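Box 3.1 A note on notation
Throughout this textbook, protein chains are presented in two layers. The first layer is the amino acid sequence; the second is a token string describing backbone geometry. Keep the layers aligned when reading.
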Amino acid sequence: MRKLTPTLTQSGLLAVLLQRQRYKVIQLARRRTQRNHLRVAVWNTLTWPYRALTAPTLIDDSAEPFVGTVPRHP
């Protein structure tokens, strides 16, 4: 009588391989998310002065008074 080699499922190796593959996929997704967060944080840090200087301002925010802008009717 010959001894049969067990399949991946019978030996439990399939479960181990699938678990390891799932772990790698999760780790890859975590690294990608961390990399994106870091990239966004660096980009925002580098570009906020430009955005602050070029942002549109409201008329009411200006320091100049509105004297003489509205003609008065005598």
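The mean pLDDT is 83. Residues 13-54 form the longest helix (42 residues).
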